[in-house]
Amino acid sequence: MTENIAASAVVASGAEIAEHVLIAHYCVIEKKASLGDSAKLGVGCVLAGGSQIGPGCVLGNYVTVGEGARLEQGVTVGDHTVIAPGTVIGRNSFLGSNSTIGRLPKAAATSTVKNQPGMKPLRLGPDCIIGCSTVLYAGTVLGEGVFVGDRALIREKCLIGNKVVVGSGSVVENDTTIGQYTKIQTASYITAYMDIAERVFIAPMVTTTNDNYMGRTEKRFQRIKGATIGKGARIGGGSILLPGIEVAEESFIAAGALVTKDTERAKIHIGFPARPVREVPSDELLEE
Ligand SMILES: CC(C)(COP(=O)(O)OP(=O)(O)OC[C@H]1O[C@@H](n2cnc3c(N)ncnc32)[C@H](O)[C@@H]1OP(=O)(O)O)[C@@H](O)C(=O)NCCC(=O)NCCS
């Protein structure tokens, strides 16, 4: 036996422990949990029943891995992070400290979004980097190489494409789709039911909205819709998109603009309300 298990750790008899593992003091490993070759657990980690920690994973201190969750090979997890039951973390991903990964949504009594039973666990593709104090919800899928900054939040039933960046402190609400290589910068608010295509750029502190009735009347439930943003569009700092707006491909929204109408393809829109003023220079357009 070449594993190194601290005397105070509690390892259930049905747990599967591979070779060369390191299990620090006060860890609890429940039955049917498994730990791959050379995996390392810091002090006080809890691996619930049936959870799988792949070879070479490194968990900091006081990490909790829920029932049946799976960490593929080479995943690193910071101190005090909680991974919800059934969550899948792709190989070589990094999760910062104090994060909550794969939590179930819990609606307020007055919320328009009700509790939804049977939500699928969160899935992260390989090579994702998730910051510290981030919150990712169940029912969401992150592709390969996604970056989520510190204190960002991504709600349930979102589809986040490969290599997307969600900047620090940004919020992505439920049922939103984000295409590959899109970048959302610091502290932007992406409302529920948005469709954002690939290679979109969203500058810091952008606000998007989805309800023109601001919580009143029943008809709002039929009309609720965030903006649709076409491929390669760029949304300037501090701008506001009203509900259901279609931002055309390669549109440029100037900093501080209020977008009240659908925009024109590859045109620069400036002002409050925003108006198209000229073409986007050709050397700024995406190459086909
Ligand atoms: C559109 C933009 C590029 C400026 O365009 P520009 O044509 O070079 O602007 P100019 O400096 O020539 O200004 C032309 C006029 O428009 C005004 N103007 C410029 N930007 C404006 C804006 N965002 N909103 C309202 N008016 C604006 C100027 O005051 C000027 O008015 P004037 O002729 O009465 O003096 C710039 O406003 C912008 O939005 N940049 C994006 C910044 C950003 O959000 N980056 C994100 C990453 S940090």
General description of the model:
The chain is an all-beta fold and about 290 residues long. It is about 0% helix and about 30% strand. The chain contains 1 helix and 40 strands. It has a 15-stranded mixed beta sheet with strand order 1-4-7-10-13-16-19-22-25-28-31-34-37-39-40, with no helix packed on it. The chain has a 12-stranded parallel beta sheet with strand order 3-6-9-12-15-18-21-24-27-30-33-36, with no helix packed on it. Strands 2-5-8-11-14-17-20-23-26-29 form a 10-stranded parallel beta sheet, with no helix packed on it. It is elongated. The model has no long low-confidence stretch (mean pLDDT about 95). It binds coenzyme A. It comes from Syntrophobotulus glycolicus (strain DSM 8271 / FlGlyR). This is Transferase hexapeptide repeat containing protein.
* Amount of beta strand: 25-35%
Cofactors and ligands = coenzyme A
Radius of gyration: 22 Å
Strand order of the largest sheet: 1-4-7-10-13-16-19-22-25-28-31-34-37-39-40
Helical fraction: under 10%
Number of helices, counting only DSSP H or I runs of 4 residues or more: 1
Using DSSP, what is the number of strands? 40
Structural category is mainly beta
**Terminal CA distance:** 57 Å
Inertia-based shape: elongated
Overall average pLDDT: 95
- Low-confidence spans: pLDDT under 50, at least 5 residues? none
The major pleated sheet works out as:
15 strands, mixed
